[in-house]
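Hey,
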Amino acid sequence: MSNLLNGLINQLQQVLLGKPQPIKLALACILARGHLLIEDLPGMGKTSLAQGIALSLGLSYQRIQFTSDMLPADILGVTIFDRQDSQFIFHPGPIFQQMILADEINRASPKTQSALLEAMAEHQVTLDGKTHRLPSPFFVIATQNPSEQAGTFMLPESQLDRFMMRISLGYPDNHAEMQMLQAMASNAHQTELAQCLSPTQLVELQQRVDNVTASDAVLRYLLALVHASRHSADATGLSPRATKALLQASKAWAMLENRDYVLPDDVQAVFVAVAQHRMRSRSDLQGDSHCLQILNQVNPIR
């Protein structure tokens, strides 16, 4: 399986040049059964990364373009009365796929954003009193533009907490951007991606993540980070859901490092991505700044 994961990482690095850390974080999130939020300026490769992941994993995939006039039914589906059969028939919406790309999620209204809450938390949709299960595996990759841009709605805390990680891609370095231009100039850029893993193999890897062990010393260090966030005067603290997400993400990162046990280094590697969007600031500091402060203040327990 490690060879398959390495092949997957190498292929995605051809899609998003010069960004090994965000790619690895995105894969750790998926292996930990989490949902991923990618926030960055337009044109940074957010959609390309999401599409590359879907194709590389061989998942049934649907891109939903969020707009200000979108309604919850446009995502979940509708129940329509069939006169011929004299019964109501449910017509599933685009959310009934293994992977959903919620593109520019913060351009939709809060009412429409909330349509994802049950699906993300419980992997099911309830409409007209009937519950419909979503396929397995199921996860959401959402992209959003910075909230200060025109035409955006801030995601509420309940929605943000559903995402295991939030990452940013940032500008490519000079070498990566030169590679991109050279590939375009020579018409050598890759147009099709090979499937590196099957959905069944992905589920097996997710189960292997569950079996990665964490010692009591690592758990105490993880809890020390969480408790430090709750005693911060500048931001809201992490919830118990965030605590569980941090442990599961640390396990997934350890597996990507070819280990079956968690080290404090694994917790540190994923802490900012797991915590930054949950720590709402009461000052001018951003969530990632709070996270870095906490990492500097809390020493690993050996």
